[in-house]
Amino acid sequence: MACGHSVDLTDFMSVLQGKIAFRFYLGTQGNGFEYTLNLSYHAGVPENAYGTITKLWYQTYNFGDPGNLQPCEVFNAEFPENSQAAKIKLVSTGHGWGDNNTGNAAEFHHDIHHIHINGAETFAQDNWEDCNPNPDGCQPQNGTWFYDRAGWCPGAIAPWFDFDMTPFIAGGSAEYKYIFNEAYVDICHPNNPDCFSGIHCDNCDDGFNPHLIVASYLINLGDSPLEDVDTGLDDPKEREMAFRVYPNPSNGLFQLSWEGVEKEATIQVSNNLGQTLRSIRLDKPAAAYELDLRGLPRGIYVVQVNTERGKGVKKVVIE
Description:
- The protein is mainly beta.
- The protein contains no helices and 15 strands.
- It folds into two domains: 10-222, Jelly Rolls, CATH 2.60.120.230; 240-318, Immunoglobulin-like.
- Helices cover 0% and strands 37% of the residues.
- The strands form four sheets. It has a four-stranded antiparallel β-sheet with strand order 1-8-3-6, with no helix packed on it. A four-stranded antiparallel β-sheet has the order 2-7-4-5, with no helix packed on it.
- The protein starts with 49 loop residues before the first strand and ends with a strand.
């Protein structure tokens, strides 16, 4: 099965100049994947020749966690001088499902999220996708996939949402809040003191809970050069978090270490289905962490470390 996807890079004209490095990251596990990059060029003048990119929400966030229902950061960003148009470009895909997640969230739960600008609810994101027929025409999907999903379908690119920020340019800057569906709470959650195993779900302490993987940017466009803004996209290596895992393989007890002290870090452990089994937030600055996975079955798992410096991913083996 081979499925192709087309991506319009018009908004990134001024970024795609000179020598550019592309990096692809496969977030699922498995063998036999091959990427082919084909670029097509079209004559003409873009509507806006210059642009800047500022990263907004860009990580995995717990969804419906009674201990923190709104985990996304609040951003304040200025519009560069000479900006004539601006937009928020955002994608979020739901993950996690099963009897231990209320309503089969976030993968199979229809949610509408919102973006607040300057404290006011401004944009709505209906994060639901009709998967039959496949949005990108990718069939058969090991048979025909017909279940609708939260933000993505197997074999298809998750839909991007564009939210027009042009009316806010005159204000010089804006405050950005990404608000998850306020009507949803994951009842079966370790942070819910009112959850009782065998009543609300099989195991309230299971730890496999819904989450959203989010990527978003503020894009500013203009007809003349915009003031210098750090896009966070200049050098892919700056966004890669390097860390060590040892011993590997092990009986399930791993030592994680990285260079320097990180003020904030989260550690996420997933299985070969992409299901999150552990989500750990370090509550104090650290340069190392002892990861205890001895309760998990033997097999291969993925450990992801997120810090302010970027994201690092490694596979570990429990013997």
